[in-house]
Design brief:
- By secondary structure, the chain is of the alpha/beta class.
- It has helices spanning 16-27, 34-44, 48-57, 61-69, 95-112, 122-125, 141-152, 156-178, 199-212, and strands at 5-10, 30-32, 115-118, 132-138, 190-193.
- A five-stranded parallel beta sheet has the order 2-3-1-4-5, sandwiched between helices.
Amino acid sequence: MVPYVITISRELGSGGRTIGRKLAQKLNMRYSDKELIRSLQDKFQLTTSGIEKLKGQKKNWFNDFIQLVAPAPQADLLIDPDSHFIKEFRADLTTDDIHEAEVEIIKAIAAEGPCVIAGRSAFFILQNTANKVDVFITASMEHRIERVMRKQGLTREQAIEVIGRVDKARDNYIQRYTGKSRYDARNYHLCLDVDNLSEDDAVDIILDYINKMK
């Protein structure tokens, strides 16, 4: 049985976001990652209070909301995390505001139907969700540096600086809001080192794991 929800946690430069998107395409499931979730907050000025206000205004507000920004997959139709939905960050939102809104959005996306969700501590937020698989994508530092250089057009020094900054931010975020280390293998069902794997190889391994689940 295909899991109802698959969460993808990953290191910057591991290709985890692309792996998650390709996995969703293979399974014909909705795909969401942190860039989309952040863009939803910014585009619609969502905080926890804002979400509650929307809920009070319209019974089916979230279904319409999701169909607008992340439609259920049809043939060759899946949300692209690099699309025009990404907006500027709102400076008036605090980290707690952002996290609270993310929790509400992630839970609501999962409640809408089968999906792949990448990042933003979804493995923890959805810990009580039945029929869920949590995956962690990792890679060596050299692999990550080379990918970030290639994808973002950076020098080696710039890529190292970006990776260090993002790693620290993600570590702090996960620790603060879950009390866990994102590197703890016990958080996940499957941890995958992709150094010698293509993105498609990684997807196939995840699918094989899912297919062997009882």
